[in-house]
Amino acid sequence: MFRDRVDAGRRLACALEKYRGSGALVLAIPRGGAVVGDEVARHLEADFSLVVSRKLPFPADPESGFGAIAEDGSVFIHEAAARWVARDEAEEIARAQRNEIRRRIRALRGGRPLPPIQGRTVILVDDGIAMGSTMRASIMLCRRAGAGRIVAAAPVAGPDVARAIGREADEAVILEIPEDFHAVAQAYADWHDLSDKEVLELMRRWEKPPNVARHGGETDRGGGGGGVRERVR
User: Helix, strand, coil: what percent of the chain each, to 5?
Assistant: First the structure.
């Protein structure tokens, strides 16, 4: 069990030590993944940003989903989804999630595009992988964007999902894979749903202050795309 997301992020960062200083890009899936990804990126001295993917929830059970959609339009759908949700209903749900994705990009990333991905090692981070839909949609996005290597990383996941993610990413780094796994929250002693405000405050710590020289603590990296920053030390 992890104390909280900060603890989980620090432990996950240690498991990703080989990528330290490699020029990797850490993309966290908000909201919960932002805290874990922040810790990973700081430890690895990596660029950091958010990739917005949203679960496609069942109308009668929003906590569960039949797939996910990423901000570039990549869609992952579970094979049995056609038996679960009518096509027109699924399209309406996807439309609503696209609207929420646009809102989150504006709110959490300042409307900036994703940083350059092509040819880079991308480490996708979440605070846990339940059904795996948002992670899979994010992997699809990175493939389409030409990532050189995709690492899916999370503190916890169930066995079946961990195996599936391992097949779809180039590497999966998952610290705990409990047999009896039902929800990400069960892996944390201190758990709460993050707000936009909490994520935004975290991301602001990665922004470049005006007129700061590199030796002063921070500089832009990655060609300026997507608001990627080195964090102020």
Answer: 40, 25, 35
The answer to whether 52 and 71 are in contact (CB under 8 A) is: yes
Domain ranges of the chain: 5-227
In this structure, the dihedral spanned by the alpha carbons of residues 118, 126, 217 and 148, taken in order and rounded to 10 degrees, is -20
- pLDDT tens digit sequence for 109-152: 999 999 999 999 999 999 999 999 999 999 999 999 999 999 99
pTM of model > 0.85: yes
CATH of 5-227, one of 3.40.50.2020, 1.10.390.10, 3.30.70.141, 3.40.120.10: 3.40.50.2020
Q: 114 - beta bridge partners?
A: none
Please report, as a single letter, which amino acid is at residue 2.
Answer: F
pLDDT at 222: 40
CA 5 → CA 13, 19, 168, distances in Å? 12, 20, 25
